[in-house]
Design a protein that fits this description.
4 copies of one chain form a homotetramer. Chain A is α/β, with parallel strands linked by helices and about 300 residues long. Chain A has helices at about 30-40, 75-90, 115-125, 145-150, 165-175, 195-200, 220-225, 260-285, and strands spanning about 20-25, 45-55, 60-70, 95-100, 105-110, 130-140, 155, 180-185, 205-210, 230-240, 250-255, 290, 295-300. Chains A, B, C, D: Pathway: Purine metabolism; IMP biosynthesis via de novo pathway; formate from 10-formyl-5,6,7,8-tetrahydrofolate: step 1/1.
Chain lengths: ~300, ~300, ~300, ~300
């Protein structure tokens, strides 16, 4: 037992005032890093962190995440962007975007009856662990309404029964359009249509309750018990039209044994699910994840 | 993303009706297992699980945890106990106790400003993951009162400032005496006096925010950052008069690196703390932990 | 840096003189533990360790591993076995076997060009970590012959090219029959015919270089890189006619990221493979693994 | 079991021809990254990977590791170095060095009776996992001489008994001076004098058989067993005059329990020791580790 009379116990992710993140990806060639850092230098911006990855330095795919800062950044951003446009779009086959880190991304969380992933995100957000703005929670069950609202977050109940989800998805689109920068499926357990994924137009992160690609589809813990595996896990991935096949952001596992029933696997797995999902949401919120084909580059 | 139309999502630890746990420890010798299982057999009790450990089969210390069951167990327990008394107390230098598993242990949780361990226990309890009865939460700060009470659990604010804790401890004893079977210090951050530990008369579990015996005492994350370790951890242990020296129940760690500030170590560590504490509470609640000198035997 | 002037550095698994292991499995019912421990007690045998598991105490499957000892055990074993036969075969639907732990199991290791799993087993065996007797190494390549023989172990080169493995398998059977208690495929990379598996008549342990059931079949690290997983693993399992579908003994994983090439995944995975295989071999050698349908009960 | 008929099984770290690594550290200020990348760009060098860390962007400590390449690198290096000298030494308080990655670092391994860390390094080196040149093995016992020499590596037996190590250390210096770029203590178990550390003039990596700072000094596994910890670990660190207090490079742990004897803890720990040491050696060999006070920056 420990006495820490005066030690503060702050866990908050400090608001990154006067900092922005620049993501660049495209074809690798000599001089990209130099060009970017020269632009930042000209505008008096200091590089806070720089991560770079190339899958082949001779014309492969190039990825760079740069966090930079200076006093009065917001006012300076347009000029920095204009300068980067000149430097990067001429010579290089590159895509890039800049985001002001003082403005948190807005997210909608979709949930169902199982509340562990939902509550973990709400609770981490309240502790200041997640630099996000939770715009709303949408659930096909009303069971968590009071709990969600006690966090000061709007809750919308959109039932989704039967095979035809089009009415529910229309409601979803109405709620989401213009209001969110990404969506998190916190054990939502409903398949989203390809049309919805396209129309919503923002990244969707799902937590799958297995170590993908093992146990794709429904009820993975029952399948895991049946196969007699010695580890169960969870996978956070971006949602694509192909069920459970989207780019993986994060995975983890926990050791189990013959004595664990399916109920116990679910309980153990629930801890992994919420840990994995919270990491994926944090990394996405901080623009640490770059999609590339069916892969992700994660700059931790 | 997964469709699990009909899969129930239950995590509850089922109430173990008609089951009891028998803990036996003492000097090892031939025939203990046979004697115990013979008694249980005579009373028609089936052995559900049996764990046994001896640190030296030739007269070392012997430990056995046996879960057994039969229909109408509660009515049969007195006769089983009487029979065990006859069998075990004559020939063997053994201590033993039986507990009816349908009656959950009563616990008081002590907390302070940091709420992550407290909330994790309350939340797991509500999900049915912990077979305990949370009698009350006691805190030296009122900050978590509303949250705790929203779980339907009594909250008592007992300030504890200055060096003299005797008034606070007197209040604690008044609240606890007769009402709890064990106490959990969920980042309580106050030293308990030896007198209090003795008078409260029930086991006290503490979570220390380091991998003991590294970083004993105050502010271990700052010490960890200063030492440049590559893992930080947490340790659940029984409280004794010697600060951070009691028998360890459970430990775990998480990987960190040079880029983690003290704030970030605290955040990462907080996840380990609550995971480790919840496992220690679960195992204690299920009588899986046997104290032996300054060690624990944990039958998982 | 540490000075340990007088500290011995022994890692050897001590030869378990005068100890035997009893494995019992069958239909659960009241009184099995009592019957077994009574028999052992009558013969003056002390229970060194006892592990028990039942998947359902009301007539489910029951598994028990009991290590017991007494002076002059070998001479006493026939009488103990006779007594157990009387006690267990009458009333109970149980199978059981006893093994004298002073006699290590004999094993043949099959290998191919990749030598990491093979060398790890040879090296652990020399250090005294594995209570086995390595009768021979069989390989379809001659490359490791000198290395194997330098450990004092016979090496047999049995080429196995083309689709028809029957000639090779006939040679294998000639070498193995009567000489080994189990076979280990240490990255042997050749499919064994169902006929061979049946005729060899002893358990065969394989190490698969993925976290099964993910990436069944050939070249799992390439598949893992293609899928963009964040963990790669290995699986030790008993070989059955169904490729990569046999009962899993042990699994583990290691964290990887986007920057790891397939070559690097193989290198990282190689460490997991040898760790997982060595644990599976140790547990099998100590009769800690009980097969039950397509599962294993592992008493660690 | 897997058939991989044609899959190569190569694990070798490819020799990085035409690549060099540049390490820069010093006081952070605007423009360092730009200046370095501009110089590399002017010389037609492509940045293969770039890692950067600053403990405070406003004048804190700055660290950068850059791997770059171009055809005919060796011939171009002097000009690149001259250019960097001009750019970096004028304006910035920076230290930097460049190393041609096609020339592996030369290492001497010190060992004693325990051979697990030594053999693991020799074996990984032979597999091509470690881009090092093992110049010699020095041991205070002759027991591993044959084994070491079978790897084609010189073995020197330098006894080191009694309190006065000066004769042994004089021999060590004679063997090492001019011949090695770093030294690895692979469970050498002898304290090196401050004078030796200073005179040898190259980094020394030690593996300590505990999770430092827990269990500093001799016989940590016995201490771990006594304290009843639930994890044991190992720590690779640079050797300084203060015993077990040098900058930590890497650490890891493994789960243990009450049933593990000291012998078993040593066996489990040995696996962690060799894994941790091999990672530390790899990272040091690739210039991924930068010492900063009593810390390390490790760019993985």
């Amino acid at each position: 037992m420990t006495l820490t009379q005066n030690a503060p116990d702050q866990h908050s992710v400090q608001p990154a005032a006067d900092q922005a993140v620049l993501i660049v990806h495209g074809r690798d060639r000599t001089g990209i890093v130099a060009a970017i850092s020269a632009v930042l230098g000209r505008h008096g911006a200091n590089i806070v962190s720089l991560d770079q990855y190339s899958d082949n330095p001779h014309g492969g795919a190039f990825f760079q995440r740069t966090v930079f800062g200076r006093a009065g950044l917001r006012a300076a951003l347009p000029a920095i962007e204009a300068d980067l446009r000149t430097e990067l779009s001429g010579d290089f086959e590159l895509e890039w975007q800049i985001r002001d880190l003082s403005v948190p991304k807005r997210v909608a969380i979709f949930a169902s009856k199982a509340d562990h992933c939902l509550l973990d995100l709400l609770w981490r957000h309240r502790r200041g662990e997640l630099p996000i703005n939770i715009s709303m929670v949408i659930s096909n069950h009303a069971t968590t309404a009071d709990e969600v609202r006690s966090f000061g977050i709007p809750f919308f109940h959109v039932p989704s029964q039967g095979k035809d989800k089009s009415a529910a998805e229309a409601q979803h689109l109405q709620l989401l359009t213009g209001n969110v920068d990404f969506v998190v499926l916190a054990r939502y357990m409903q398949i989203l249509s390809g049309e919805f994924i396209e129309r919503v137009g923002v990244p969707i992160i799902n937590i799958h309750h297995s170590f993908l690609p093992a146990f794709i589809g429904a009820d993975p813990y029952a399948k895991a018990a049946q196969r007699g595996v010695k580890l169960v896990g969870a996978t956070a991935h971006y949602v694509t039209e192909d069920l459970d096949e989207g780019p993986i952001i994060e995975q983890d596992v926990v050791r189990v044994n013959h004595a664990h029933s399916v109920v116990e696997l679910r309980r153990q797995g629930a801890d992994v699910e919420r840990a994995v999902l919270s990491r994926a949401v944090l990394w996405h919120a901080e623009d640490r994840v770059i999609r590339h084909g069916n892969h992700t580059i994660v700059f931790q």
